[in-house]
Design a protein that fits this description.
six-stranded antiparallel beta sheet, 2 domains, alpha+beta
C-alpha cells in the first residue's frame, strides 16, 4: 500500500528541502569534504576548512539555467562549558544564534531561523505523523517490514518485544487513520451512479 506526499505550491519551505551539516560532523581541524548522493550519483559536494575558531565553507551551485555560483563563507565556532567538564561546540550563525546545524542554499550557509524554515514534522498532516512514527519504530527494528516478527541479532528480547508492540500499535493507528481518510474522500466524491449517504 503506497502513500503519497502532496505539496502545496505556496507552502513554507522546510528543513528537508535543503542539505545540511551538523557541528558534530566536523570532528577534527583541517580540510574536510562531504558529498551527497542520489541513486549512486554524487549530486552535491562541499569542502570545509576547519580551524579552531572558525570554518570556511566552499561549494559551487548550478541554477536551472546552468549558471554556476561559487559560495565561499566563513562561519565562526563558539564554545560553552558543559556541567560535567569539557566544552560544547556551536556554529555561530551570521544572525548571532548558536546552532548545531547549518543549511546550505545556493547563496548562503545559514541556520533555519535565518532561512525561515520549518521542521518537516510541523507541516505534515496527522496521517503523515502516524506513518512517520511507525517508520521511526521500524528503523529501530532493522527497517524491513517483512522481518518485524524476527528479533534482530544482538537486540535484547525485552527491547525487541517492546519495539514490536510499539510497531504493531503504530501500524494499527496509521491504518485506522488511512481508512478514515478513504471514508472521508468517498463521502466527498461518491462513485459515479452512487449517491452519498
Amino acid at each position: 500500500m503506497g502513500r503519497g506526499t502532496y505539496i502545496r505550491a505556496n507552502r513554507k519551505r522546510n528543513t528537508g528541502d535543503f542539505r545540511s551539516l551538523s557541528i558534530y560532523d566536523l570532528t577534527q581541524t583541517g580540510q574536510s569534504s562531504f558529498s551527497w548522493s542520489r541513486g549512486g550519483t554524487v549530486i552535491a559536494q562541499i569542502s570545509i576548512f576547519v580551524a579552531p575558531e572558525s570554518c570556511v565553507f566552499g561549494y559551487t551551485t548550478t541554477d536551472r539555467l546552468g549558471n554556476k555560483r561559487v559560495v565561499d563563507q566563513t562561519i565562526f565556532i563558539d564554545r560553552t562549558p558543559c556541567h560535567y567538564g569539557g566544552q560544547r561546540k556551536w556554529f555561530l550563525c551570521r544572525c548571532g544564534r548558536r546552532v548545531t546545524r547549518l543549511f546550505l542554499t545556493s547563496a548562503v550557509v545559514a541556520c533555519r531561523h535565518c532561512l525561515n524554515l520549518n521542521y518537516s514534522s510541523q507541516i505534515e498532516s496527522p496521517l503523515d505523523n502516524l506513518w512517520r512514527r511507525r517508520d521511526k519504530v521500524l528503523d529501530k527494528l532493522g527497517g524491513d517490514v517483512n522481518r518485524t516478527h524476527i528479533k534482530p541479532k544482538h537486540m535484547q528480547s525485552r527491547t525487541w518485544a517492546r519495539l514490536h508492540y510499539e510497531y504493531n500499535h503504530a501500524m494499527i493507528q496509521a491504518l485506522g487513520g488511512a481508512i478514515q481518510e478513504i471514508e472521508k474522500a468517498q463521502r466527498l466524491w461518491p462513485a459515479p451512479g452512487r449517491r452519498s449517504s
